[in-house]
Amino acid sequence: MGTDLHAPLGQERPAGKRRRLRLSPLFVFSVVSVAAIVGLSAYSMMGEAALKAPEMAAVDVPAETAEAAPATAAPEAAESLRRANPQSGANVERTLTDDGNVVTTYSPRSRAGEGPVIVGTPRIGQDPRLAGTPNEDLLEESPYGQLPVVGEDGLRPMDQYARPWSGARGTRIAIVVGGLGLSQTGTQKAIEDLPAEVTLAFAASGNSLQRWMQVSRRDGHEILIQVPMEPFGAPDANADPATLLTGLPAEENLGRLHEALGKITGYTGIMNYLGGRLLSDPDTLEPLLRDVAQRGLLFLDDGTSAQSTSGTLAKAIELPHGFADMTLDAQLEKSAILKKLDDLERLALRKGSAIGVASAFDESVEAIRQWVEEAGNRGIEIVGVSALVEDPADY
Questions:
Q1: Which residues cross the membrane (predicted)?
Q2: What span, in angstroms and rounded, lies between the C-alpha atoms of 251 and 238?
């Protein structure tokens, strides 16, 4: 039995005499003419579609995609692709050609100015080129100057001025150096010598604060403002018109707070200076912290008062809040400060993170500079303090 390559697979047919098919010249000429006409028509349509298409690269849609999407749904398909790919830096458009094919074209998204397109980036941190300039959308005019507010789009100053960090799950430490602005030479030395990862806290009673803020922010520092609060056993604090006091009406304390906040811009939050008595009085403290929360700021408690109620109140009013775990320079000697920094590291290794505070003394600045430069080699990430506060927005 013979074989036939043109027979259906698995089927056989009896062998028979084969007849040779003879084609007349007229029939051959007709077939060739029809094929030429069809080919010319297809070529014309393809040329017309090419003229209509944008002058850019075209990528054919995979067969299964083209079959799944009817020709009449091409515009909707293009729109759904843009929604499904928000991170794309290109405009995506699908075009239905005259011959029924779907062609996808890509083109760069239009933008003003130079530089890459950044789409869907986190709203943490500020463009380094603008770091010394406050975001006007996050400020309001007041009798005390410009005060921070939450933007109409919900952007908080805490987020806008935060120092970005890696987001890794390793050990993190924040170091806050306070008292800046009180000594011009000391402030300049601290800003120049301290690594950018260190958070700087400026005293509300300092001088040239806006200038120092601009220098600090351009160098990459996150900054806080230190507000004086009434301590225990210091009657002379009542004579300071800037100190927040337990015996004052809420309106007057708020006025003093706003005066401090208006001294500077570009900060993520406030930190107490002293304040043991006021921090222990929830009736006096609550309206102050509520105002801080409504302005989109954080509050860092320096951790020196065991009677502080700031943590309890912060949870009740949804205020981003943190406690310092350790004061690093209670003993003002470089070797002692380095030892405290090592203690802070061991604490962070147990907890996952830790916050240390210090003042801008020369010994403190030098010890912190040296320790931070070495910590990176041990896998420690130094972050801005905003990265370690407990933020209700994260829940």
A1: 26-46
A2: 16
